[in-house]
Specification:
The complex is a heterodimer of chains A (288) and B (480). Chain A is 34% helix and 30% strand. Chain A is α/β, with parallel strands linked by helices and 288 residues long. Chain A has a six-stranded mixed sheet with strand order 6-7-8-3-9-10, sandwiched between helices. A four-stranded antiparallel sheet of chain A has the order 2-1-4-5, covered by helices on one side. In chain A, strands 12-13-11-14 form a four-stranded antiparallel sheet. In chain A, strand 4 and strand 5 form a beta hairpin.
Chain lengths: 288, 480
């Protein structure tokens, strides 16, 4: 199973949300990084067959994206902002969506629902009304519903937004566990989510692809571009103006500044091993 | 997939408060408006003699004459008076049925009784006619004689002219139109055209137009009334939709008996009552289901579930059809249950009174008359809500369409009226004269419902793929 995207463009009136996007996405987890408004959700929706493209080609496992019914039958989608009918119980909501996914056999539906709810640790909430679920539980229910038809492609849009750190890590692990031989596309603006779960990624910015390739390749790109400086307060303002600062840690008399620079920004600066977040910042700002 | 989805939708509908409110409204409407006869009631018209005999029996039992607007408070009957009443009853009935009494003998008995009771009772010649006119109502029928119809409208013109004002009925609201010189002249013109040589309106009421003859034909008469209505501001009593109700006259006992016989023989009673049942249920079907229909698709978006649904395999037609049919089935089941209740009441009535009834009549009219109205209301509500992306605007639109269908109470089945009004228990023959118009109307609304349904599926399907078809909806930001 492979997704091939060629020259994909999406316009909303005069605004271009995607500009000539070329991507090849294979099995395993694929990260889609980018700031808010980069076009990630637009791309996700096109792949989920709920948004028409303006131009270009999208091939999903040998099928053109215009074959919506066939494509919908092989995908699972977890939108960024979703909910379910609040008066339904967890089981009822899952059963309703199973029927919409075309699973006719009642026993098969029931078996799937129990198995998936167990996987996402919601087996004790089968009768709980959707309105009574916490944010984290709703997200887990979201991933369970996306897997109800055993999809070959799983598209998850900003799944960790609004979750506390512990829930985020659990959710990431859950996705990694499910990926297997599926194509899992994880869209996020949190670099850490990609770093710990994806092998390949693309960085989108204002509709353009800024980077596509492996996570390793991204880190390589940022090698010797990330520096740590223990700067005096008076020097910090200078560094902050001149270089993209990734993080700061305040010490007693100095500030530990992590920044991006093509060459050593100060005499006492030491090169640092880049993380995906550093590399992402480097691509977005530093490379310029 | 459709049946499974339909089951889910019905189950979900049964969990909503709106559904129960609709249920309560329909049931309340049924019990408050529809009046089937009780086991001991008679639907057979009562003749004048039977009525008078029954009145005597009641007076004898009560020990006083009945209170009424003719004679005022009922006079207490002394033992002598009661004896006189009893004697009159015996004289009327004897061994025979009351209806077989010779009229001269009947009048003689009543005259004597009135005298024995001290005179000026409703049994006497002086008050009896008025008493019977008020107490014995066999219903109304259209006037057959065009001269009578012209006479009655001329009377109304004269009355309105003298009053100097008239009501105009628009959107169910009565608005008073006070006459200026133009309106007065319009009435004078109409009266002059109706009666060649001019009519002195001051002749009325003394002459009462009883002897007036008209030299115009039906078409000229209709033109005069249409012109007058227009000049008075429209939708007055002279309007073609309103005036038929004025040109009626009371039915005689004989005519009422003919109607009764056709109701018993051709309609097997229940068909006649099923039409008025369908009239009331049609009123509910023409508006109230919009409260479910207008929000059933909007809810997906409001609950942020639309993307989960849109990305599923289910076809747009199956999805919309399941939602649509869930409301239709839910409401139809209510009507069918009420049909069953009505059928049981008529079963008991027929058993007690020895009539035969059509056990399928209520179901038949429910499905043929009420269902197309329901299909249209639900389809329109869903269609408007999907176009505008808001449920609210569908409600006033449906209300407007419903409202213009409400009047007249029967006889107008033009194809812009989704509710079939048939607010009368009339004979099969009366129904037959309108049956073609009614059937055409029902076919039309069935067809329109299918078109609206298809349009809803088309728009939903486009929106499902993110098409900006119809934009964001003009009321997108106005959500409730």
């Amino acid at each position: 199973m492979k997704i091939k995207i060629k020259d994909l463009t999406k316009n909303y009136g005069s605004k271009q949300a995607l500009r000539n996007v070329d991507l090849d996405i294979g099995e395993g987890m694929f990260g889609l990084l980018g700031p808010n408004g980069a076009g990630k959700t637009t791309l996700m929706r096109i792949l989920a067959a709920i948004l028409d493209k303006s131009s270009g080609m999208v091939d999903v496992g040998g099928l053109d994206i215009s074959n919506k019914k066939e494509i919908r039958s092989m995908l699972g989608y977890l939108p960024q902002d979703f909910s379910m009918f609040p008066s339904m119980s967890v089981f009822e909501a899952m059963d309703y969506l199973s029927i919409l996914s075309g699973i006719k056999d009642r026993r098969e539906r029931k078996g799937n629902i129990y198995r998936l709810l167990e996987k996402v640790n919601l087996e004790n909430n089968i009768k709980t009304r959707v309105r009574a679920l916490s944010g984290g539980m709703k997200r887990r229910l979201g991933i369970a519903q996306a897997l109800i038809n055993d999809p070959k492609i799983l598209i998850v849009d900003e799944p960790t937004a609004g979750l506390d750190p512990e829930e985020r890590i659990r959710f990431r692990n859950l996705l990694a566990e499910f990926s297997g031989k599926r194509v899992v596309i994880l869209s996020t603006h949190i670099a850490g989510d990609v770093e710990y779960s994806c092998k390949n990624l693309a960085i989108l910015d204002e509709g353009w692809i800024r980077y596509k390739g492996s996570v390793y390749g991204l880190l390589e790109r940022a090698k010797n571009k990330v520096w740590v400086v223990h700067a005096m307060q008076k020097d910090f303002s200078f560094l902050n103006r001149k270089y993209p600062v990734i993080s700061t840690v305040a010490g007693d008399d100095r500030i530990k500044v992590r920044l991006i620079a093509g060459k050593s920004p100060a005499s006492e600066a030491v090169p640092a091993e880049p993380t995906v977040e550093d590399a992402y910042m480097y691509i977005m700002k530093g490379e310029e | 997939m459709f049946i499974k989805l339909l089951n889910k939708e019905i189950k979900y509908l049964l969990g909503s408060i709106s559904s129960y409110l609709l249920l309560v409204v329909i049931i309340a409407f049924y019990f408050s408006q529809f009046e089937p006869p009780g086991i001991n009631d008679s639907i057979k018209p009562v003749s004048e003699m039977e009525f008078i005999y029954n009145t005597m029996a009641k007076d004898y039992e009560n020990g006083s004459l009945s209170s009424n607007i003719i004679t005022g408070a009922g006079k207490e009957l002394s033992s002598e008076d009661k004896k006189a009443v009893k004697k009159a009853m015996d004289n009327m009935k004897g061994d025979k049925e009351v209806v077989g009494l010779i009229r001269e003998k009947y009048l003689d008995i009543l005259g004597k009784l009135d005298k024995e009771l001290g005179g000026d009772t409703y049994y006497g010649d002086r008050l009896r006619e008025e008493f019977l006119r008020i107490s014995l109502n066999y219903g109304q029928k259209p006037m057959d004689d065009s001269q009578d119809r012209m006479r009655i409208m001329l009377k109304w013109m004269s009355l309105d002219y003298r009053k100097g004002e008239i009501y105009s009925y628009r959107f169910g609201m009565a608005r008073t139109i006070r006459f200026g010189e133009n309106e007065k002249q319009a009435i004078r013109d109409a009266m002059n055209k109706m009666k060649a040589g001019g009519t002195n309106i001051l002749d009325f009421p003394p002459k009462d137009f009883q002897d007036t003859r008209f030299n115009i034909d039906e078409s000229e008469f209709a033109d005069i009334l249409d012109t007058l209505d227009k000049k008075l501001g429209g939708m007055t009593r002279y309007n073609s939709m309103m005036r038929d109700g004025l040109m009626t006259t009371s039915m005689t006992y004989e005519e009422a008996m003919v109607r009764f016989n056709t109701i018993v023989e051709k309609d097997m009673i229940t068909n006649a009552y099923a039409r008025i049942f369908a009239d009331y249920m049609g009123i509910t079907a023409g508006f109230f289901p919009v409260f479910l229909a207008a929000f059933i698709l909007i809810k997906d978006r409001r609950r942020k579930m639309h993307e989960l649904i849109n990305s599923r395999k289910v076809s747009s037609t199956v999805y919309i059809a399941a939602k649509y049919m869930s409301i239709v089935i839910f409401v139809t089941v209510i009507y069918l249950l009420l049909s069953t209740h009505a059928t049981l009441l008529f079963h008991n009535f027929a058993k007690a009174n020895g009539y035969r009834i059509d056990y399928f009549a209520f179901y038949k009219y429910c499905l043929i008359w009420v269902l197309p109205t329901l299909l249209f209301t639900v389809a329109l509500g869903m269609c408007i809500s999907i176009i505008i992306k808001s449920g609210v605007p569908a409600i006033p639109v449906q209300f407007f369409i419903w409202f213009i269908s409400m009047m007249p109470l029967s006889g107008d089945y033009r194809i812009f009226k989704p509710v079939i009004r048939f607010n009368q228990v009339s004979s099969h023959d009366v129904y037959l004269q309108w049956s073609l118009a009614i059937n055409t109307n029902r076919m039309f609304f069935l067809f329109v419902s299918v078109l609206l349904f298809m349009l809803t599926v088309f728009i939903w399907s486009k929106r499902r793929s993110g098409s900006s078809f119809f934009g964001k909806g003009i009321f997108y930001n106005f959500k409730i």
